Amino acid sequence: MTLILNEEQELLRDSAKSFVDDQWQLNQLRANRASPKSGTIDTGLWQQMVELGWAAIPFPEEFGGLGLGYAELGIVMEEAGRKLLISPLLSSVVLSGSAIELAGNNDQKTEHLPKICDGSGLYAMAYQETSRHEPENVHAALTKSDGGYQLSGHKQLVINGGSANHLVVVCRSSGDAGDRDGLSLVLVNSSAAGVSIANNLLLDSTPSANITFTDVPISPEDILGEIGNAADVLDEVYARAAIALSADMLGGIQSAFEMTLEYLKVREQFGAKIGTFQGLKHRAGRWFCEVELSRAIVLKALRSIDSGSSNLARVSNACKARCTATYQLSGKEGIQMHGGIGVTDEHDIGLYFKRARVTEILLGDTSFHTDQVLRTSQVAY
Amino acid sequence: MSDLNTFRQETRAWLNENCPASCQGDDNILPDILWGGRRQKIDEPDVQLWMDRLVAQGWTIPGWPKEYGGGGLSDDESKVLAEEMSAIGTHSPLYSFGISMLGPALLEYATEEQKREHLPRIASGEIRWCQGYSEPGSGSDLASLQCKAVKDGDDYVVTGQKVWTSTADVSDWIFCLVRTDSDAPKHEGISFLLIDMESEGVSARPIVLLSGASPFCETFFDGVRVPIANRVHEENKGWSVAKALLLHERTMLAGGPGRASTGDQKRTLLQVARDSMNAPTGPLPDKAVRAEIAQTEMDQMCYAATLQKVQDAAKAGKGMGPEGSMFKLYLSELGQRSADLRQRLNGADGLIWDGDEFHPEAKESTREWLYSRASTILGGTSEIQLNIITKRVLGLPE
Ligand SMILES: Cc1cc2nc3c(=O)[nH]c(=O)nc-3n(C[C@H](O)[C@H](O)[C@H](O)COP(=O)(O)OP(=O)(O)OC[C@H]3O[C@@H](n4cnc5c(N)ncnc54)[C@H](O)[C@@H]3O)c2cc1C
Q1: Who is most buried in A196, B229, B311, B318, counting CB within 10 A?
Q2: Which of B245, B261, B210 is nearest to B129 (CA)?
Q3: Which is nearest to A266 in space by CA: A274, A278, A255, A256?
Q4: Which of B290, B316, B383 sits opposite A282 (nearest CB)?
Q5: What are the residue ranges spanned by the domains of chain A?
Q6: What percentage of chain A reaches a pLDDT higher than 90?
């Protein structure tokens, strides 16, 4: 495992970068606020990304994928994150795609993965029920009914839930909220009877849905993996998603840092560039170190997915916790070093500050990941 | 590739034949580090034998050219050697300022004659070197140094004082920055001299640290005669050598043996907490402490990844450069944080300076905690590293 990019990966990065630069404007985030309840994303833009192969990157070729890995997907997500691009990469490809790939049987993979890869299906994963990321705190009930099952419950923070036509839902077939046993994964068509979707716009202009399921019929073919036994798969899905999200965060972190560094070199006060003031300089130096540490752990973590590392959970905890802290620092220092212009909606730095908070809460904040690390700390690494 | 395989076979065979059994395995008798020098005594005959054989083979510094006492190995071969050594649980214990700092600078700047004189004696461990940079009035602003060298015939006559000279009292030679032109701008009047500590007029007085240890000295030069032939690089161009050497120093501080690991003590942080809280199993009762320990563990993972990334970049031919400052800065502070946490977790045991009634590891961890405060000062303070990063890496204006 090497932590530097090879030639093909460098090419992929260049092409992703020019695509994002050409096709996406940060202003789109401001424009999205005009229709907060639409729940839609720019499917034309997504289709172009699909045509570049981005949605197919991590999946095996037999299911329509490119047979590459997270090292590659991470490159694309980092470039998207630089410009805060809104796409279903996390919701459809990483979260839903991983759940289907890791838990699904051959028929399910044959049916769904090609749709994710070619963009003909948009998928979202509904897992969270409370205000914090608590993977086992699941109430949504999967109960037996004649001939199959039915699902009832409420989910929140379903990223891109309003534009998805398929939902991967985490639910409980037995036991109590908080138990690992009894967690199940089911596929639900979002237009099915009993599915009610309320769209919201998050503070970074990401569409997110709250979804209520009322006696939604579930056929046995739509259950992913062994019923009641999804906890281990979910660990891996969340670990992957936390790492992929960290790659996106790394992109934003760098943009905020570079934007501010540039400002330190041009803005003048007291007859001098503000970057000459040691009070700012040293903070920029420390910030740079945090960016570099974040970059290294993201590279390491992405490769840990690809190599099937037995240490994946801990690496993902360290990765998400570090990127969360660095993104917070980047948003806050970014604004502070810009002065008054930094707190205006007109300047881009604030968009990164907002995104930092959304990505912090998604898939667990620093306290969550810190706590996870110590739970497994008896295992030496 | 097959060449490398052959090399691996040969290396394995050589180690098999030459490494004494007592110097192999988990409980081998080798010290972590042998600093070398004339004052060093090796009591164990097997360790002496192992050293002699390593030196004869050039494998104390496998990457240096053979004619200078090295092994003449390529990077790949050096890596194979390290792998094969670690596979049988052995290592080459010789490590010193000569190896990590002076040697690389001599390879770059010294004359052929100087290289032939000094490098083999570093590689064999015969001579131990110390670093005479800092002075009472010149620490961070090193280039303002005043220790003077005046030409007289074939010699320089050196007069002045150095301070914080690590191991000056046990070293054989010192590499020194001296002022050879007081009128020139400060960086342009400095020369780099190699001085035998046995020369008439050199004396060193140990200084005691907070931890009670005395790793460094004040070093005095009173009309010391140093042959002009012992000057490295041109007169008044010593600053280039000094800077190159500082880069090696920071690289060493960022990853060299004895420094990098913050976890080489016997108990994990979690274990220390368990012992002191009397909580042998289950979650620690103190949530804030849980979080601090986990944070340290995660920081270490991130640091390890960062170090690996730089090493991978170096293998691919992309050098480290001023980013070394980042490692020095981060590692020293991370080490401080974990030493501080460890000492604090020891609680009352950690407060005892001397006596018998405390956990056997507490005394050592207290000494390490006290010493750790030095890590953000030596080799350029954290503030100076930040100055370097912001100037050379980030390009911020001055
Ligand atoms: C354990 C140990 C071993 C050492 N070994 C050696 C050795 O073998 N050989 C050798 O030559 N030296 C050695 N040193 C000396 C070391 O390099 C100096 O202590 C160090 O460079 C700082 O210099 P100073 O102590 O004079 O502090 P000062 O330079 O006086 O610094 C005092 C404070 O001012 C800050 N400061 C200074 N300049 C600036 C600036 N421009 N911007 C912001 N802040 C600034 C510093 O960061 C520090 O906080 C050793 C030091 C220690 C602690």
Answers
A1: B311
A2: B245
A3: A274
A4: B383
A5: 7-122, 126-228, 232-376
A6: 92
Say what the pLDDT of residue B274 is: 87
| CATH, range A232-376 | 1.20.140.10
CATH architecture designation of domain A7-122: Orthogonal Bundle (1.10)
For residue B220, the SS3 value is: strand
Asked if B294 lies within 8 A of A377 by C-beta distance, the reply is: yes
Q: Which of B96, B97, B134, B197 to mutate to test the pocket of ligand 1 (most atoms within 8 A of CB)?
A: B134
Nearest CA to ligand 1 atom 13: B164
Integer-rounded Cα radius of gyration of chain B: 23
Closest by CA to B295, choosing from A250, A223, A44, A325, is A325
B141 alpha carbon to ligand 1 midpoint, in Å? 8
CB distance B206 to B216 below 8 Å: yes
Query: For chain B, which domains are there?
Result: 2-94 (1.10.540), 129-236 (2.40.110.10), 254-393 (1.20.140.10)
For residues A303-310, average pLDDT: 96
pLDDT at B57: 95
Interatomic CA distance for residues A362 and A351, integer angstroms: 17
- Of A3, A272, A289, nearest to B312 by CB-CB distance is A3
DSSP per-residue string spanning A178-213: T-STTEEEEEEETTSTTEEEEEEE-TTS-EEEEEEE
Which residue in B has a C-alpha nearest to residue A292's C-alpha? B306
- Candidates A253, A370, A381: best to mutate against B (most CBs of B within 10 A) is A370
User: What are the mean pLDDT values of chain B's consecutive 10-residue runs (398 residues total)?
Assistant: 87 96 91 90 93 96 95 91 92 92 95 97 96 96 97 97 95 98 96 97 94 90 98 97 86 50 62 87 84 90 87 72 80 91 89 81 87 91 94 94
Poorest-confidence range of A58-67, A341-350, B230-239, B322-331?
Answer: B322-331
pLDDT reported for residue B320: 64
Q: Measured between alpha carbons, how far is A202 from A158 in angstroms, rounded to an integer?
A: 11
- The reply to whether residue A264 touches residue B305, judged by beta carbons under 8 angstroms, is no
Query: Is 80 exceeded by the pLDDT of residue A28?
Result: yes
State yes or no: pLDDT of A175 exceeds 50.
yes
Q: So which residues of B are the catalytic ones? A: 249
- Which residue in chain B has the smallest CA separation from A373? B294
B98 DSSP 8-state letter: I
- Name the residue type at position A324: T
Q: Is A258 an 8 Å CB contact of chain B?
A: no
* Mean confidence (pLDDT) of chain A: 95
- B131 CA to centre of ligand 1 in angstroms: 14
Residue-level length of chain B = 398
pTM: 0.90
- String of DSSP letters for A242-275: HHHHHHHHHHHHHHHHHHHHHHHHH-EETTEEGG
**Is the predicted pLDDT of residue A380 greater than 50, yes or no?**
no
Report, as an integer, the average pLDDT of A310-323.
Answer: 95
> Between chains, do B298 and A381 touch, taking CB under 8 Å as contact?
no
Largest CA distance in chain B: 75
Do B265 and B361 form a contact (C-beta atoms < 8 A)? yes
B295 contact residues in A (CB cutoff 8 A): 370
| Residue B48 DSSP one-character state | H
- Return the CATH number of the domain spanning residue range A126-228: 2.40.110.10
Residues 6+ apart with CB under 8 A from B20: B46, B49, B50
